[in-house]
Amino acid sequence: MRNNLIVSGSPHIHKQESVCRIMWTVVLSTIPAGIAGVIIFGLDALWVTLVAVIAAVLTEAVFEILSKKKITVMDGSAVITGILLAYNLPSNVPLWLPIVGAVFSIAIGKQVFGGLGQNIFNPALVGRVFLMASWPKYMTTFIKPFSYDAITSATPLAALKEGKILEHISYLDLFLGKRGGCIGEVCILALLIGAAILLYKGYISWHIPATYIFTTAIFTYIFGARQLFHGDWLFHILSGGLILGAFFMATDYVATPLTAKGQIIFGTGCGLLTAVIRLWGGYPEGASYAILMMNAATPFIDRYTKNRIYGSR
Amino acid sequence: MRNLIKEFTKGIIKENPTFVLILGLCPTLAVSVSVANGIGMGIAATFVLLGSSIIVSLIRDFIPGKIRIPCYIVIIATFVTIAELCMKAYSPALDRALGIYVPLIVVNCMVLGRAEAFACKNNLSRSFFDGLGMGIGFTLALILISAIREFLGSGQILGHTLFQGFHPVFVFGMPSGALLVIGLLLGFFNLLKDKKT
């Protein structure tokens, strides 16, 4: 009875959450989009994803063995990097491409900076941009949905960039993912299911995704057509990697601002850059570059949006 | 004599201008796309470094301290002009490939740095070997970086294709690839240095 009074340092209230648990929940939340990708593009999509995940996990393990650090493969963060990288690839890439991309993501994008929690950029996007700059041919050849073979088709955004008319794609097709594109980005419905899990569990807040999508919509509505205020904003939301980027990549804990105010600035910046790249840039899609650029700006955003410490002036 | 050898060898490994002193990165980043460019730039920079080190060390007692930097620049610019005109005359292709980066050797901080940090305080023979060692160290570093970049970026070394079926990694032919390679090599050499101590 005497030992009932235990003196210990804070924190006193513990939650069951841990890095491990959050990461595996994020993995779970990405699975609907993966299933949709496999249904739309065939088993190739599954192989690309599996190869990327295995390569990412092995790279992380090898790197940590070589640098004699604690092996953190089981926390699931490398698995997510592999999945998100694969979701940003077309389904018909040669299988060495996801391997190279995953190795680059983990080695250069993450471990070089010191591993989980230290990376300044989203590792999966680093891998994607590396692949995009190195082998643009493979990265921009997409197969037609539900054809399951080598019939190529342009993504809606690429077609738009080339000035083709897209009358045969309805908003419903875009929403369900019946279009050319990367494995994980096409099915908006599946992505929203995953995002709902994350939002419900409180693992991501609404600030970044909402401001990101809203800014892109507003901007493309104003400047998206020849006439001001006639842009097809719904098309811009539903096509490209915007939804995947907004919910799964721009919400990376490590490389995004900490405060709500900072996250709103971050999301707005992402939306602005994405719209600018889409409308006037050289590439048809700019979500990955927009997020990486805002990742680079994150330390500054954090510096200027510090929360006031209670009681201080 | 041993002293002179030390001055010569320090520029190659212990005080390598690119990997240890991190001087002269501008030409290193810009021209290291191919080994041929790297060698050309290395030789040009070595020539300028050697010439300016000799002259600066010879007239170091006559240069007033307040205007020493303009004096160095004039001396360096003289040698750069010689190098540039020679390159234009004997190797126009290399001159076109290196472009503006040959005249820019004038403001290369490695050349100016050796004049300021070494040649103006040491006698002729020591300055000569210091300049030669630094120049060779710079050239070797350039060759190393450009060999990695040329192989990965185009699958070739000195214009010869090494492997069939190799898919070149275009990014290494771009400026971002130069930053990647230099960053990784710097990390690697720092790792070796840490291991030694």
List keywords for this structure.
heterodimer, A: 313 residues, mainly alpha, two-stranded antiparallel ribbon, 14 helices, 58% helix, 1% strand, globular, B: 197 residues, 8 helices, 2 strands
Can I get a quick summary?
The complex is a heterodimer of chains A (313) and B (197). By secondary structure, chain A is mainly α.
Describe this structure in words.
The complex is a heterodimer of chains A (313) and B (197). Helix content of chain A is 58%, strand content 1%. Chain A is built from 14 helices and 2 strands, in the order H-H-H-H-H-H-E-E-H-H-H-H-H-H-H-H. In chain A, strands 1-2 form a two-stranded antiparallel ribbon. In chain A, 48% of the residues are buried. By secondary structure, chain B is mainly α. Chain B starts with a helix and ends with a helix. Chain B has a two-stranded antiparallel ribbon. Chain A binds chain B through residues 108, 112, 130, 133-136, and chain B through 167-172, 174, 176, 180, 184, 187.
Annotation, overall tally of beta strands of chain A? 2
Biggest sheet character of chain A: 2 strands, antiparallel
Q: What order do the helices and strands of chain B follow?
A: HHHHHHHEEH
Structural class of chain A: mainly alpha
Low-confidence stretches of chain B: none
Write the layout of secondary structure elements.
The complex is a heterodimer of chains A (313) and B (197).
Chain A: H1 19-41, H2 43-66, H3 77-87, H4 96-107, H5 123-134, H6 136-139, E1 142-143, E2 152-153, H7 156-161, H8 171-176, H9 188-201, H10 207-223, H11 233-238, H12 242-249, H13 260-280, H14 287-304
Antiparallel strand pairs in A: 1-2
Chain B: H1 2-10, H2 25-31, H3 35-58, H4 68-90, H5 92-98, H6 109-119, H7 124-154, E1 156-157, E2 160-161, H8 175-196
Antiparallel strand pairs in B: 1-2
